[in-house]
Amino acid sequence: MKIATQTNPMTAGVETWAPDEAAGRIRRTAGLYQGDGSEGLRLASAELSFSSGEGLPGAVMARGVPVLLDGLDEEAFPRAAEAREAGVTAALGLPVFDEDQLVSVVTFLFRGGPGFTGAVELWAGQKARFELGLAKAHYSGLERFGRLSKHVNFPMGAGLPGFVWENKCPKVVNNLQGSAGFLRSSGAETSGLAAAVGFPICFQNELRAVMLWLSTKESPLARLQEAWISGDGGALEFAGGSGLGREGLIDPNASAASVPAVATATATRRPVLFDDLASLGGHRAAAAAEAGLTMGVALPVLVLGKLRAVCLLAW
């Protein structure tokens, strides 16, 4: 009998929220939580809604851009007390647009402190400069890497943020320490970072921001990371992924139709949460269980009303 590998993922939860423009509110439609102390957070989140501008989902709804909270307080995150009980120290809200309509907000909840090393970065355009700069970040155990990153800018096409900007699609970089495409690879090697995901936030054809998830093998933000990109015929094709060295997690020959989470996000054009590992495809559910995965999300990227890509994250 195989025993599941114990992991210590930084991601403690993920939620989807649906805006009700007529009522001026945004309501939670689904949520998945894990880890010690998460039951109170789960109960506090059920049937929850916020007015525009209120809480993290309401802030994303009002601004139409990602909102990253590096530290939680009751004003910005009304569930802060329950979040602290679950070890959550930071949160991210991502808008999902279909043409000019906000159709969903996805919130991620992150652990931090001793035993957790990783980063979430928000890169956005610099005023009067045609390049991306670090607008906000959450670093856990990566203070030196964070200080260096504040002084880095990326023109279009340069580095991971620049690639995502130019192509308006997600990208997974495996083996950061030896990657020529990750311009901070020396800092990544010193910090023990192993893999990164770049994800675009698009409104119509406009890039509003690039999100980066930077993971170590010991406390990954996502143990499984995949990018599925629309090919010449319009169908999604596997465009790279990382299982952080776990055999059987990545199947480069799989089709999007064989991965139910990706297929559902493609059909609905909406984010999909899952805690059934069969959503990764029955052929690799066993490998996912052995690696300690329990849940994940498939995030669509829509550009000018067309599905450009799906990013799959599981932890």
TrEMBL record:
Q: Which residues form a coiled coil?
A: none
Chain ranges of the GAF domain: 39-117
In Pfam terms, one family for this protein is: GAF_2
Q: What is this protein called?
A: GAF domain-containing protein
- Species of the source: Phycisphaera mikurensis (strain NBRC 102666 / KCTC 22515 / FYK2301M01)
